[in-house]
Please model this.
Amino acid sequence: MAVKLEINNICLTFGKQHTLRNVTTVLESGKIYGLIGRNGAGKTSLLSLIASYRLPTLGMITYDGENLFEHPKHTKDIHFGYDRVFKDEVVEKANNYLKSVKLHRPHFDEEYADELIKKFKIDLNKPLSKYSKGMTAAFHVMLGLANRSPITIFDEVYLGLDAPTREMFYQELLEEQERNQRMFILSTHLVSEMEHLFDHVLILDQGKLIVDEDFEAFTSRGVKVIGDLNTVNEFTANKHILHEENLGGTKAATIYGEFTEEEWTLAKSKDLEVEPISLQQLFIHFTKEED
Model:
């Protein structure tokens, strides 16, 4: 079933601190959203509001037209996986914890969970409090995928995985999305490593949503132009320049905006090198602080 999540003018404040400022967007099933931002940008705060962990100061989040906060039915359609550790909790074997999850999650797929437990080598007979950081991360990843919730949030739970296991997770995520067309929201600092997963990009900066765009559309507008300093200056005179670097008589200018085939041809005729830039580079330039 298609799902639409509408975030309408959300504000969140703690005392005099404005954590989120008038955040508005519409998220849809069948897409993987990349939520990125610097530390303190408000990513986890926004995700906790979507998961009904807290109430916004202003604004509303609706799920298929109904207020989502503590909705008795809709909140069960959301899985919020975050970097939770079990060190200080009562010693409980992972298999007992999993039994409890099955009782409260209507979309939980036990057969799929068994596949993931084998794939990620998760020891269910071990107490959760004795799990290593990597095993805890694998357990969270397994839960998020196997719950098969229409809205599944992963708030950097994969950071504890080693590089080969993260690749396994990325591949599994893409395959699961192909099978079930869920809505995944991935919050991450591993932008360059994970950008191939994203259908849509959300960038938060100081509590404001400054980018809310299709991944391909957003990244296609960023290029780096390299060549003779004067020629580069002339070519980029009327463009939105994100960053400039000079080395002797050579200049590299990172620009953002529509870049047509005619402009590519013109740049080539002027012996300028034009390179596409990554989402990570765009993210850095869009959220850099003023000197």
The first strand starts at residue 4 and ends at 14. The chain has ten helices and 14 strands.
